[in-house]
Automatic annotation (TrEMBL):
PANTHER family in the cross-refs: TRANSCOBALAMIN II, TRANSCOBALAMIN-1/GASTRIC INTRINSIC FACTOR
Lineage, top ranks: Bacteria, Bacillati, Bacillota, Bacilli, Lactobacillales
Tree of life domain: Bacteria
InterPro entries per record: Cobalamin_Transport, DUF5776, Transcobalamin-like_C
Region annotated Disordered, chain positions: 431-482, 636-682
Protein name per UniProt: DUF4430 domain-containing protein
UniProt organism field: Lactobacillus helveticus (Lactobacillus suntoryeus)
Domain DUF5776, residue spans: 565-631
Residue span(s) of domain Transcobalamin-like C-terminal: 709-785
Low complexity bias: start-end ranges: 431-479, 643-669
Length: 785
């Protein structure tokens, strides 16, 4: 016991030293700067090991900026990444890489006292960090190189729970640390029994007069107790204890500047960045919205804003402060988006789903608006990119909905956002008339997230693979040059269902075989013999089935086919073939050197042309296949040559353009008309575009031609009829009011639920029934709930 007391007091002295000497500038940033400037400046400062972000906008955006800044700082530490760093990275938008996870695992084995051959460390801190890190990277803490870390924690937890002197600082911190560690997952009956015992013990330690927990640092210990209990809300008495604690924190510890301090502790009760971060994280874990002042304190600063003002994730701060602040921002965002409980409770059923679905939909909206607002993008390129974002969103929303644990949902959200980030769109318009589209020899594949996930991949998307953790996405870009014919006798594989005809006349009687859409590793491959346009006006290939030798004709284009072999500047790949691949000493794939199993990552020096089937030379000088059915490019050096012509997905009838959207069960996000609207030359008619949005998704978007002098309501009625939308409204002229579109109805009088409209980005001060449109106006309808 004396050893633990000594270690406890030593930790307090160490923390005080860090507080006063490690940094944490509290100067406020420029509130007038926008979030993009904050993110850009913050990441630049981090990269240059500067001091802090020098611009700031709204609080919610600042949290995202701070998270990004913190993760960047963590990632730069490379081989120094430890368990807490790994936890931060896993909860970040892009997840954790294989290499980072390996560094974290080695760090855990080295630094945890039990796993490295010693005895339990400082009041359970070493154990709780190890368990969090292990679970975050997908390792089992009950079997780490043959050692059961959980069993050791249970042993210590049982000892702590039996000690009568619960006010002993060493015992107090052992209780919260052991409880948090055991609450990260389900580890058997002994662990659950210990959790119940520790929870009861912790509730019993709550001061009945103040509602707080008494410790050397009351702010820190109360925060740790709240965090541990928030991971055990199903235990008896926890809900009441948390409610009491949150009120007590607001009444006794909350400061006007948004921070937390114990005014009765004259020596160590002063506010500091560590306590502010820890308490903000705890309150968010307990379900408190830390983006606003605590209840009854409207003239106070919000807790998360106070943390932001201290710039805790800036370069130059201690590693511990960067870690704690980063996961605090992640927890705050998680709770604000609808997540329940602590992010460290990895096995929570459905807890992370609401927040992760909100996050991925928001990321999709951001990506689509960036595509729509790109002034140099061609309409066809925009259409392709927007449709791809829709496909990615549908795939990952489906995966998130099927996830059964928080960790799975977090991993799938990270993989989806990474896929969005790799969708690109061409900036160059064709200089000459374009030939029928064809597949180029440069198909770029998006990085897949290595974080573990329990969800199964969707078989309904062209982006599916056999991997259960992520979905590789083919990223179309549009070439700025006239499309050339396919390379003679190049090899492609089918992305979706394709049909083979015995002649170029595509009739039912000439159909010889239908190839159903398959997962990537099972896609049928074809040798392209020639390309032409048939009598029906379709761009087609004459192909030979690589497997059966059957020849015939099929539709061509990037919607149907992609090159089966990489030719872009790939620098890293992941093996996706279930049976693995071989490394060879020669480019003709002879002189086998070793077998590489599925999911292994390999570094690539270059892609080597070898007839119709390319090879990859690894950095070790050996050769592997470049076939996309066997490997997935996870890193590609950017190049203007990595382009792939696409087939426009829009259909145009007269002056009306519509975009092929996903099925009605999966609402799409903002989409731009594939044909830009230009002023009409007809003096009697005008053209306007209309987009209708609800729940962060787009119900419909397109253009409509109406008579000159028409009102905004006239155009909406015509558009609704064109799109087959259910539209209801009351009144006419100045009293006209839209009451419902496709089941999204206005609420009772006195509520804010209903439809708002704007024209060219501005809300008119009049009813839609009297607003007269001009040629080229753009109407936006948004459902407010």
């Amino acid at each position: 016991m004396k050893r633990k007391q000594f270690l406890y007091w030593f930790s307090i002295v160490l923390e005080i030293f860090l507080i006063f000497f490690s940094g944490g500038n509290s100067s406020r940033a420029d509130a007038a700067s926008d979030v993009n400037s904050a993110i850009s400046n913050g990441l630049t400062e981090i990269a240059q090991k500067g001091s802090q972000i020098d611009s700031r906008a709204d609080t919610a955006s600042d949290v995202n900026s701070a998270i990004s800044t913190g993760l960047t700082e963590i990632a730069q530490k490379g081989s120094q990444i430890d368990a807490w760093d790994a936890t931060c990275l896993v909860f970040g938008d892009n997840g954790i890489t294989d290499l980072q996870a390996q560094y974290a695992y080695k760090s855990i084995l080295k630094n945890n006292d039990f796993l490295s051959g010693g005895s339990q460390g400082l009041n359970g801190i070493s154990d709780v960090s190890a368990v969090n890190g292990l679970v975050a990277i997908g390792k089992d803490p009950t079997n780490v190189n043959g050692k059961n870390l959980v069993a050791d924690i249970v042993k210590d937890a049982n000892n702590a729970a039996r000690v009568k002197d619960a006010n002993n600082p060493a015992i107090a911190y052992s209780i919260v640390n052991d409880l948090e560690a055991l609450s990260t997952g389900s580890y058997g009956q002994a662990s659950e029994t210990a959790r119940t015992s520790l929870t009861k013990k912790l509730i019993g330690m709550q001061d009945q007069k103040t509602g707080l927990w008494n410790g050397f640092d009351k702010v820190d210990y109360t925060a740790r107790a709240i965090l541990a209990l928030s991971m055990n809300t199903n235990q008896p008495g926890v809900a009441d204890a948390l409610n009491t604690a949150v009120k007590a924190v607001s009444n006794h510890l909350y400061q006007e500047n948004g921070g937390f301090a114990d005014s009765r502790n004259t020596m160590f009760g002063a506010e500091n960045a560590y306590d502010d971060v820890t308490m903000t994280n705890a309150l968010a874990s307990a379900g408190v919205n830390v983006y606003v002042p605590l209840k009854g304190k409207t003239d106070y600063v919000a807790p998360v804003q106070r943390v932001l003002d201290q710039h805790p994730v800036s370069a130059g701060n201690s590693a511990m402060l960067i870690q704690q602040a980063t996961w605090t921002f992640e927890q705050a965002r998680f709770t604000r988006n609808g997540g329940k409980g602590s992010i460290f409770a990895f096995n929570q059923t459905d807890a992370a789903k609401p927040g992760e679905i909100v996050s991925i939909k928001a990321a999709a909206i951001t990506k689509k608006w960036s595509i729509i607002n790109d002034p140099q993008a061609t309409p066809a390129a925009q259409g392709d990119a927007l449709n791809l974002v829709d496909q990615i969103l549908a795939t990952y929303v489906s995966k998130l909905s099927a996830d059964s644990t928080s960790s799975a949902a977090i991993a799938d959200r990270a993989a989806g956002i990474m896929a969005f980030n790799h969708v690109t769109v061409s900036h160059a318009a064709p200089a000459t008339p374009v030939m029928p589209p064809t597949v180029t020899n440069n198909n770029v594949t998006v990085v897949n997230n290595p974080a573990s996930s329990s969800s199964a991949s969707s078989s309904s998307s062209a982006t599916s693979t056999s991997s259960s953790s992520s979905v590789p996405i083919s990223t179309p870009t549009v070439s700025g040059k006239p499309v050339k014919k396919a390379s003679h006798r190049s090899i492609v594989y089918a992305l979706t269902t394709v049909k083979l005809y015995r002649s170029s006349n595509f009739t039912k009687s000439n159909l010889t075989k239908t190839y159903k859409k398959r997962a990537r590793i099972n896609r049928p491959m074809f040798l392209v013999i020639s390309q032409q346009t048939n009598k029906q006006g379709h761009a087609i290939y004459r192909v030979k089935d690589i497997n059966s030798g059957k020849t015939g004709y099929t539709l061509s284009g990037s919607k149907y086919f992609a090159h089966a072999y990489y030719s872009a500047k790939v620098t890293r790949i992941k093996v996706i073939n279930p049976k693995g691949i071989n490394e060879y000493g020669k480019v003709n794939l002879t002189s086998k050197k070793r077998h590489v199993k599925k999911n292994a990552s390999l570094n690539v020096r270059k892609v080597v042309n070898y007839g119709r089937s390319n090879r990859m030379q690894l950095t070790n000088g050996r050769y592997i296949t470049a076939n996309k059915k066997f490997i997935l490019a996870t890193k590609i050096k950017k190049s203007s040559q990595n382009t792939r012509p696409s087939t426009p997905t829009a259909t145009t009838t007269g002056t009306t353009t519509t975009t092929n959207n996903l099925p009605s069960t999966t609402p799409t996000l903002p989409v731009a008309p594939t044909n830009p609207v230009t002023p009409s030359n007809d003096a009697n008619t005008i053209t306007t575009t209309i987009s209708i949005h609800a729940d962060g998704a787009t119900i419909a978007s397109g253009s409509i031609k109406v008579n000159s002098g028409a009102s905004a309501l006239d155009a909406l009625q015509a558009f609704a009829q064109q799109q087959g939308l259910a539209l209801t409204y009351t009144g006419s002229g100045a009293t006209a009011y839209v009451t419902g579109i496709n089941g999204y109805n206005a609420g009772p009088a006195g509520t804010m639920t209903g439809w708002l409209y704007s024209v060219n980005g501005t809300e008119p001060g009049s009813s839609m029934g009297v607003y007269t449109l001009k040629d080229g106006d753009s109407i936006s309808m948004t459902y407010n709930k």
